[in-house]
Specification:
Elements: E1 13-15, E2 18-20, E3 23-25, H1 35-43, E4 47-51, H2 55-63, H3 67-74, H4 91-107, E5 114-120, H5 128-141, E6 146-150, H6 157-161, E7 171-176, H7 179-191, E8 199-202, E9 208-209, H8 221-234, E10 241-244, H9 250-258, E11 264-266, H10 280-288, E12 294-297, E13 306-309, H11 336-342, H12 361-366, H13 397-406, E14 411-412, E15 430-431
Parallel strand pairs: 3-11, 4-5, 5-6, 6-7, 7-8, 8-10
Antiparallel strand pairs: 1-2, 9-13, 12-13, 14-15
Helix pairs in contact: 2-4, 4-5
The protein binds flavin mononucleotide.
Residues 26-29, 32, 51, 53, 118, 120, 150-151, 175, 202, 205-208, 244-247, 265-268, 271, 372-374, 376 line the site of flavin mononucleotide (FMN).
């Protein structure tokens, strides 16, 4: 094909015999990839993700339930203590919260695409295996189209779903950052005779937590994708590969299709869409971001590196550990933030100094105080119009989705006031 005609819309992703526009919007917690965003992807023929990060809290916000409040009340005795080993989640509440979210997302879905859920293993929730199983089964109960298994190796996740009637029908795929992680997952898949339907390969330029150590800079998505595709070929496995991390234009996406990928997973460009769950003030911070403000650090108590903007308010906080209402990353009563908080001195006025080195992930994600983002966040300002008051125009998810789908030659059509959602030709497109 002539390079100028090449666009993502020339390709389709086939999963279980069904065709999709090859664009997957990645899961972004906490409720950043909202069901409204996922619905747009599905309506346009692609795949959107909801995230189950902190689902009881998200249910409280969306449906006026009281899961976080009643958990805080039940555990109020541990508030003054650094020992949180008695704090736990009621699995019935967790199930109900997850069911409400998935049910609502599936009831309102339209179009030929699909709505998946991103389920993170590292969300340990004081009781890792039972809480993970509860979240997986609740999503299946409510008819989710697909489950993307992220933030961990998910050695037992397929087994946990094995006896559910939808186990062989639901679409399932892991997120991996290496052939090694894929090999481990496939071993567990073999044990239940259930191969994944797709494999997301996430590289070091992605947003959120990274599946690499502090040597993340040494890794390269193209190399990992080539290795994964070669490994699948060697083992005669025909499973669609979906790269993620730093895919900013439709042409970035087609370059992966030419390497043998079947679709792409993208997220950062959608963080500034109308349907994204970030508050407007935070979307503007993403637009304003400069390249030198994008860092990968180790402040997350999960132990994984995370990419964020240095302007994130969470980086200068002295908030008390919020395990009683939240506690989503507690493991055996511990969280790295509790230790960092414990060791933080008080100033001359008796006020706790800002905690260095770690953040209370639960609190700051619940408040959108952690501006996590993909590496290319600083290019977002080039995808829209700056308004007279200095703020940036917020584009619709449809606009961004269609731009990925129709763009050629690395062009991005800048969103402009007064444009309809329908994406025009690329005659006025900007080459980035
Ligand atoms: C704001 C934000 C939050 C994210 N949160 C999660 C998450 O909770 N779980 C997860 O598996 N991936 C998460 N990701 C990763 C995305 O799903 C996706 O794979 C990746 O960011 C794609 O790269 P891109 O942002 O450069 O397009 C997040 C990404 C962003 C930008």
């Amino acid at each position: 094909m002539n390079a100028t005609e090449d666009k993502l819309d020339n390709y389709r992703l086939t999963l279980n015999g069904k065709e999709f526009v090859p664009i997957m919007i990645g899961g972004m917690g906490v409720d950043i990839s909202t069901m409204e965003l996922a619905h747009e992807a599905a309506r346009l023929g692609g795949i959107g993700h909801i995230s189950d990060a902190m689902s009881p809290f998200v249910s409280d916000r969306r449906f006026k339930t009281r899961f976080s409040k009643s958990k805080a009340e039940a555990h109020k005795e541990s508030v003054g203590s650094f020992d949180k080993s008695s704090v736990h989640f009621e699995l019935d509440d967790l199930r109900e919260a997850q069911q409400r979210l998935v049910r609502s997302a599936m009831e309102q879905k339209t179009g030929d695409g699909a709505v998946f859920i991103n389920i993170m293993e590292k969300l340990t929730m004081a009781d890792p295996q039972p809480s993970l199983e509860t979240r997986l089964l609740a999503a299946l109960d409510e008819g989710i189209d697909g489950i993307t298994l992220s933030a961990g190796l998910h050695n037992n996740s397929l087994r946990m779903m094995e006896n559910h009637p939808r186990f062989r029908d639901v679409l399932v795929g892991p997120i991996v950052s290496s052939v090694r992680a894929l090999r481990i997952f496939l071993r567990s898949a073999k044990r239940v005779n259930r191969m994944p339907d797709y494999i997301v390969v996430e590289g070091p330029l992605a947003g959120g937590h990274l599946g690499f150590g502090e040597d993340w800079k040494k890794h390269n998505l193209e190399v990992i994708v080539d290795e994964v595709i070669a490994y699948l070929k060697e083992n005669e496995l025909d499973i669609p590969v979906i790269p993620a991390g730093g895919i900013f234009t439709g042409t970035d996406a087609t370059s992966y299709i030419h390497r043998g990928a079947s679709a792409v997973q993208v997220a950062t460009r959608f963080t500034v869409s109308k349907e994204c769950g970030l508050p407007e003030r935070v979307k503007q911070k993403y637009f304003e971001a400069k390249e030198e403000q994008v860092v990968v650090n180790t402040v997350s108590p999960t132990g994984y590196p995370i990419r964020m903007l240095t302007t994130s308010p969470c980086l200068s906080s002295n908030i008390k550990p919020q395990c009683e209402p939240f506690g989503y990353v507690l493991e055996k009563g511990k969280c790295q933030y509790i230790d960092a908080y414990k060791d933080t001195p008080y100033d001359a006025d008796g006020k706790k100094c800002p905690v260095e080195g770690k953040i209370c992930l639960c609190h700051h994600f619940s408040k959108h105080n952690c501006y996590t983002c993909g590496h290319y966040v600083y290019r977002l300002k080039d995808t829209t119009t700056q308004l007279k008051d200095g703020s940036y125009m917020i584009p619709s998810a449809e606009w961004i989705f269609t731009d990925y789908q129709m763009s050629r030659n690395h062009e991005i059509q800048r969103a402009e006031p007064g444009q309809s959602n329908e994406h025009a030709s690329h005659s006025s497109a900007l080459r980035l």
